[in-house]
């Protein structure tokens, strides 16, 4: 068992030296975890023939209420405008998607402003 964004380097390394089979969770098992449902696409790991259903934890940057709204807005915008470039050198960033934002229970007002402008669903 491992936890991390995909493609996880430790899984890639293990699959390079031996046959690895990733197991999906059933919908009932996902519900029992209380975590967000995540699908690892079928082409992420060698020998994986189909999508893998699993769970995930959100990737979150935390701040205090002392951070002003404009700074939070700019940090959030910088992350999302650079995510693809980061994924080019660190592929696990590709596993972070705007759809995951909706699962967050609270957002800094500056981050919420960016998501509103970008049309990304989020908690109010």
The global form is globular
Oligomer: single chain
Count of DSSP helices?
4
* Share of helical residues: 25-40%
Rg (C-alpha, Å)? 17 Å
Lateral strand order in the biggest sheet? 1-2
What is the string of SSEs from the N terminus onward? Answer: HHEEHH
Task: Tell me the fraction of residues in β-strands, as a range.
Answer: 5-15%
Outline of the structure:
With 124 residues, the protein is mostly helical. The protein has 4 helices and 2 strands, in the order ααββαα.
Task: Tell me what the structure shows.
The chain has 124 residues and is mainly alpha-helical. It has four helices and two strands; from the N terminus they run ααββαα. Strands 1-2 form a two-stranded antiparallel ribbon. The longest helix has 21 residues, at 69-89.
Secondary-structure topology with pairs:
Blueprint: H1 9-17, H2 27-33, E1 36-40, E2 52-56, H3 69-89, H4 109-118
Antiparallel strand pairs: 1-2
């Amino acid at each position: 068992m491992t936890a991390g964004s995909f493609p996880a380097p430790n899984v890639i390394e293990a699959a390079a030296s031996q046959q690895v089979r990733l197991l999906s969770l059933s919908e009932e098992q996902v519900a029992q975890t209380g975590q967000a449902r995540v699908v690892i696409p079928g082409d992420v790991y060698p020998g994986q023939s189909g999508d893998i259903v699993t769970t995930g934890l959100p990737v979150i940057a935390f701040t205090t209420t002392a951070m002003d709204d404009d700074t939070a807005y700019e940090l959030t915008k910088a992350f999302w405008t650079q995510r693809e470039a980061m994924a080019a050198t660190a592929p696990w960033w590709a596993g972070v998607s705007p759809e995951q934002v909706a699962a967050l229970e609270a957002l800094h007002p500056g981050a919420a402003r960016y998501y509103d402008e970008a049309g990304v669903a989020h908690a109010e």
